[in-house]
Hints:
Elements: H1 2-23, E1 25-30, H2 38-53, E2 58-63, H3 71-80, E3 85-89, H4 112-119, H5 122-133, E4 136-142, E5 147-151, E6 166-169, H6 173-181, E7 185-188, H7 194-200, E8 205-208, H8 210-215, H9 218-221, E9 224-231, E10 235-240, H10 241-245, H11 249-283, E11 287-290, H12 295-300, H13 302-311, H14 316-324
Parallel strand pairs: 1-2, 1-3, 6-7, 9-11
Antiparallel strand pairs: 3-10, 4-10, 5-8, 5-9
Helix pairs in contact: 2-11
The protein binds beta-D-galactopyranuronic acid.
Amino acid sequence: MFNISYKSLVGAVAVTVLGTAAFAENWRGWNIHPEGYPNTTAMDAFAAALEEKTGGEITLQMFHGGTLGSQPDAVEQVRAGALEIGNFNLGPIGPIVPAANVVSLPFIFKDVPHMFRVLEGEGGAAIAAGMAEKGLVPLAWYDAGARSFYNGDRPINTPADVVGMKVRVMNNDLFTGMINEMGGNASPMAFAEVYQALKTGVVDGAENNWPSYESTGHFEVAGYYSLSQHLIIPECICINADTYAALSDDMKAAVTEAAQESAIMQRDLWAQREAASRKAVEEAGVVVNEVADKAPFQAAMGPVYEAYFESNPDLRPLVELIQATE
Ligand code: GTR
């Protein structure tokens, strides 16, 4: 009698311990930005909400400032499951996921609200499905504003101003094509290397949004910012697909809710930071140039679109859907 109850007691304890061990998850997350950047604050809020909403069953340790490597490397790490979470710009994801590459077509979105309307509809679902197939599930979308050109010696008003200019781009053939079609020389390079490259003249210019232009100090070494707004690319909170698939429905809901709350926070912080960054660089002496006519830049992008359609004929309807979205 005593033996039987003793055994069942031991059994019950063992099951409880195993059960806890099986469900406790300690995730690691990648982010390229420094403390105080909207994405950093919002990713920390995501980590806190994740722990709270899952009753401590999931914790997330964030590694900010790109300490775990460049974005293309981190994307591979999340796909492979070496990291569970990443806050990624979709630019460097495009070469892996053709459907997600539509957002990197120059001038595809009219403005940021148009981008979010697309992401919230059928277009966003197609992009998310393509990403999930390649091991990355987007849980929520972050704002990254519009990207414009900056360089050290002159304002850019027409594509002719880019002729002969060496311009750093993110890793993606679409961006290389974009610069080359304007007559410049594209130089794909990791984000962390751009400051030095601008300073030493390895490149003449680069392109980014206001907050990154300011947070990286690029404005100190490239003081002309021309509002070409040629790229409007979203960012994601992305999770490794297997990690996500292994969660119970309740856990999936908690994780998604935490991510979406974080995105609401990020978009709000983003709006504030865009204004603050612009003000800060203008006060530091940056020459801001409004581009009066973007049509010549758009016209120069014809071959970039054609090359994209040639390698992805099945994605023409997705591009048309985006263009038809009000
Ligand atoms: C920033 C973006 C980063 C990274 C960077 C770059 O705007 O938030 O994720 O993509 O641009 O230019 O490499």
